[in-house]
Here is the input.
Amino acid sequence: MTRPVVGILGNAHVINEDYLVHASGVMNSAAVCHVSGAMPLIVPTDPDLVSVDDLRQTCDGFLFTGGRANVHPEEYGEAATEAHGTFDRDRDRLALPLIRACVAAGQPILAVCRGFQELNVAMGGSLYPEIRDLPGRMNHRMPPDGTLDEKFELRHDVTLTEGGVFHRIFGASTVRTNSLHGQGIKAPGKRVVVDGHAPDGTEEAIYIDGAPGFALGVQWHPEYRAGVDPVSQPLFGAFGGALKLWAKGERGGQLKSA
Here is the structure.
């Protein structure tokens, strides 16, 4: 049987100072392939090269990945400052309308880190440029030094809503996650339900209320060791289940909160 196809939103990078590429980490493709049971397909994030309609006809679902560039604050009505970091306007122009189209149609999406932030902004929400500067918040950023394992180490718990979507996926009300982000939700977008928080109150898990399909986002990086991690595995597994339903022409696949 043909596997579902997942479009993985790539990021723009420059190699050797002048060669522009669209790329995505191997761990994203591996999680989609080995845990979700789908074929990964890296999407060039430039609306001058691909259209939302063409992508939706080609792919069964989408993984909105993390990335160093942040969503431009103009997308939520604010001016850019130095604290907002770098931007990728082409990805903004593609990812945000693609999210809205998928949510409306019930096409499965899983949003991770920057993707989590894109999901919130696409639905009308806003972001803090640097949450570690807020009173009482911890530093959620990736450590600048260390091995890959040390950088992706599990660092804090996420407390989930009892009986909510993520509680039902994980079978637990508290899960241990890694933390590799600088920005965070300021105001949730329309229909964005915050379903999990870090100990400092930072929003870490969201879903779209009333979405006809799988539309979930997490602020951590579940693609790391997705095949063995007790939190990552069921998340990518649930995503895979929704993809298979979509590929068969069925809608749904988002677990409903109690």
Q: What stands out?
A: Residues 113 and 219 are 4 Å apart (CA to CA).
